[in-house]
Every structure is written in structure tokens, then in C-alpha cells.
Amino acid sequence: GAGVSQSPSNKVTEKGKDVELRCDPISGHTALYWYRQSLGQGLEFLIYFQGNSAPDKSGLPSDRFSAERTGGSVSTLTIQRTQQEDSAVYLCASSQGGLAPNGYTFGSGTRLTVV
Amino acid sequence: QKEVEQDPGPLSVPEGAIVSLNCTYSNSAFQYFMWYRQYSRKGPELLMYTYSSGNKEDGRFTAQVDKSSKYISLFIRDSQPSDSATYLCAMTGGNKLVFGAGTILRVKS
Fold first, then answer.
1. Which has the closest alpha carbon to A115: A6, A41, A7, A19?
2. Which of A32, A86, B40, B69 has the fewest CB atoms within 10 Å, counting from its CB?
3. b/e for A38-59, b at 16 or more Cβ within 10 A?
4. CB of A111 within 8 Å of any CB in chain B?
5. Side-chain half-sphere of B108: how many Cα atoms within 13 Å?
6. Chain B residue numbers touching A107 (CB-CB < 8 A)
7. Are B93 and B100 in contact (CB under 8 A)?
8. pLDDT one-digit tens code per residue, A27-53
9. pLDDT of residue A102
10. Is residue A1 scored above 60 in pLDDT?
11. How many angstroms away from the CA of B29 is the closest CA of chain A?
């Protein structure tokens, strides 16, 4: 597609349940990022994938969070045993890689609410 | 202390006003400086980016970077109601973008 696609757009889950969030990047983009946006907190880096290299997981807040990227394309962010503090908008972005930021494109995000 | 500081606002101005949005940062390794605009329930979209110090102009928008002061600004001239959004500064020196908290801007007609 023309842009970065994320699904679902909204997710309400009960505390303690696992959730999976999906990101379809722009075709041909080798780099993929996950960020979390909480109210008034800006965007918090979670994880970065670049081609076949080992992902940069330095932003994952706990071992309940994991992500994978299959075939260098679609990525799934999994949150196990969700807690109320996990409620946020989870944003995915893709780019052609490298330092220059002009190629970063964000999806519209998944709004996660843990009740 | 956060790496990037940005006043969350909200900032409310009348239509036609000049708007000044600012961020300060602490990491001298940052090389690229960006401004993103985010409408409600949408992902951020890139407005402008600059490399190192200096000014860059694009239509009604001007971005300024002062690396000696670790201070960046975005100016919006002749502001319009359609400019009402959250403006996020971001910067990078490596693989990831580091964002400010975002400033909510409201332009009243």
C-alpha cells in the first residue's frame, strides 16, 4: 500500500490478557520502528528493525513486551499479561534506513486501552 | 532530566498570528532536527528537517537550529485554523528518533 498500515486501530483488553498489534510497512522500506505515545509524554522508542540485522530492543519497557518482523516486512508487537499502565497509542514507522529522517512514515497507530 | 524538553502548551493564538514553538535538548550528538505535525487520532507527519545549525524555510514554516545553545525553533507565519494540531520536535544521531512531548497549538478564527 501507499502508507504504513496498523491494525487494529483500537483495542480494549482486560488486565492480564495478551495482545498483538500489527504493522504493515511501506513496501521496500528496510527499517521499521515501534514507538509508544502516552498522554503528554511524547513518543517513546520501543524497538527498531533494520534488514536482517539483530533488532535494537533497548526501548522495550519490560520482558512482557516483544516484537518480531517476519520476512523483512510485517511486524507484530506482543504485550503479555497487560497492565493498565500499558494503555497508550502504539505507533509504527518505516523508512528506507540510514540517518536522514525524511523517509520516516508513521502509521495512524493502535489505541490500546487496558481495563 | 529528559533528553528533549518541549512545553506541552496548549498554545492558543488568533488566526494570522506568528507562532513560535521551541525545544531544548541535552545530547550534543544529535545531528538531524525535525518537526512533526500530528492531528488528532493520526500518526505524526514530517513537516521539516534540518541538518546541523542554521535556518530552513518552507512556505509559511521556518525551522531554526542553534547547536551552541542546544535549542531549536519552528516559526509559523500567518497561522491558519488548519494549523491546529500537536507539534512534536524530534532529533537523531543514530538509529532512533528522540521526541519532545509535543506542543498543542490552537489557532482561533
1. A19
2. B40
3. eeeebbbbbbbbbeeeebbeeb
4. yes
5. 5
6. 43
7. no
8. 989 999 999 999 867 899 999 999 888
9. 67
10. no
11. 12
Residue A102 per-residue DSSP state: G
Distance between CA atoms of residues A56 and B97, nearest Å: 13
Count CB neighbours of B108 within 10 A. 11
User: Cβ contacts (< 8 Å) between B100 and chain A: which residues?
Assistant: 42
What are the strands, taking DSSP E only, across B26-84?
A: 32-38, 45-51, 54-58, 61-66, 71-76
Q: Which residues pair with B11 in a beta bridge?
A: B105
- Reported as a single tens digit per residue, the pLDDT across B6-17 is 988 899 999 999
Amino acid in the structure at residue B70: K
A9 Cβ contact list (under 8 Å, min separation 6): A108, A109, A110, A111
Assess contact for B98 and B3: CB atoms under 8 A: yes
Total Cβ atoms within 10 A of residue B39: 13
Provide the strand spans (E) within chain A. Answer: 5-7, 10-13, 19-24, 31-38, 42-50, 65-69, 75-79, 88-95, 105-106, 110-114
Across the interface, of A41, A101, A107, the residue whose CB is closest to B32 is: A101
Q: Angle CA(A35)–CA(A38)–CA(A40) in degrees, nearest 5?
A: 125
Per-residue confidence (pLDDT) for residue A100, from 0 to 100:
63
Mean pLDDT confidence for A73-83 = 97
Instruction: Quote the mean pLDDT of chain B.
Output: 93
Q: For B96, which of A48, A102, A109 is closest by C-beta distance? A: A48
